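User: Please predict the structure of the protein below. I'd like the answer in structure-token form so I can feed it into my own downstream comparison script.

Assistant: Understood. Taking the following sequence of 243 residues as input:
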Amino acid sequence: MYKALIIDDERLARNELKKLLAEFPEVEIIGEAANADEGIEKIETLVPDLIFLDIQMPGKTGFAMLEELDRTPHVIFTTAYDEYALKAFEVNALDYLMKPIEPKRLKDALQKLQQAEEKEAAAELANGYRGTLSEHDQVFVKDGERCWFVKLGEVRLFESVGNYAKVFFGGNKPLILKSLNALEERLDEKVFFRANRKHIINLRMIEKVEPFFNGGLMLDIKGGEKIEVSRRQAVKFKEMMSL
């Protein structure tokens, strides 16, 4: 059973979608919202697996709403405008349904949801068996149409972006659907260090360490990034680096 939330400023559109979804017993509609701010509030309190999201809404677009979320559920866009299709897939939406929504297209979109959930479950199961990744392990990174096989030792830093992480290697910074906490559990702590709430750094990529405000540290990383180590993590960092 998938818990779904409908976010659309048109009451008739919400009612029409509810009527269509009544044919799919695997989807439970747990709420609806008439604008982006209300949508954010409902996502945080109801924690849906899936949102049906209109793009053009008064005050704030569906894309702007997604940028404010800490945790992003699966997204199926519903809109009367086809010019947003490309951007919809840039933000990793499952699908993009044109209004009026056709039952066949809705069925296809929900099948994509099932496939995405199965992939995630399989990945979690595989991760459980594999345990910690070393700097010599190679990982597959896909961002939009571009794909890379990257040796973890070549990654200089991971940066949290909501429910995603930006991976810095060479001149590339693709996004992956992984939280920093999930990455921290898999990475070798002798090589990768949680510098602060938003960053995990490769210790071998540090070029310079300087004292910083309030007992923290400032690190110069090989790619030119400057990363602050929080005061609490600075204590741990100094212990790790000392003889």
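That's the full token string. The longest strand covers residues 27-33.
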